[in-house]
Please model this.
Amino acid sequence: MMELLTLRTEDLTEEEYAAAFADMSPARQEKCRAYRREADRKCCIAADCAVRRALSSRYGVNPADIEILLTDAGKPYAPAFPTRFSYAHSGEWIALALSDRGEVGVDVELIRPVMPRITRYFCCEDDLRYVFGEPAAPDVELLTEPDVLSRLFEIWTFKEALGKAWGTGLTRETKYAEFRAYEKHLERLGDYMLCAYEEGGTL
Amino acid sequence: MLERMRNIICEFVDIDPEEITLETNIRTDLGLNSLELVNLAVEIEEEFDVEIPDREAMGLETVEDAIRVIEEYME
Model:
């Protein structure tokens, strides 16, 4: 069964951030330092910290002793443990999904007005019907209607989670994977949408 | 081209345009996540009147990459 954890960047103290950064591998520290904005660096550290704490809780090991690597496609994994995991962050939220059953992906995103043309990158025809009630996005400059945005961000976060689980990111395959055909977990965190997907979940 | 790219990027990120160079990494230097990258791709398409294939848009890493793709699809 998939485990889903969420935390906010404010949940860690500065001392915990410093300690968590020290636990990161040199490669991950370098990736963290590359972020220009401090908020992004904090999210990177907090996500790493959350993974270590979760695996430490599951396996009874010291968080600092957990090695976290990235595949060539950028998918994180801990080689010493069978648990798969995925993390995401947006604004103040960090989300972590873990599974002992299969690959897993998670995404969290702030719901906000967007240009309808972005649907071309991640929505198939059935997805568009789900969001707009017809197989095309409206010809408007910006989508602002709350229910439409909510449904659109359900799909966006699902496609991102799916791409993470598959280890591919957004691709033509994730675009044409029909949102309504997959079993997934959707959750509102205030103004944010969260989706977690565990491989093997199809209707 | 770089100047026009700077103007577009500055609509997304609070940054001094002069800090944006060809080597600027769109994800790490600008802190853009996937959704912001998609929005940027759409803005680029509208500014330069091109259509960028999905795989190209999601594969953009630097400003130089973006300009190269634009020039390729403008031809």
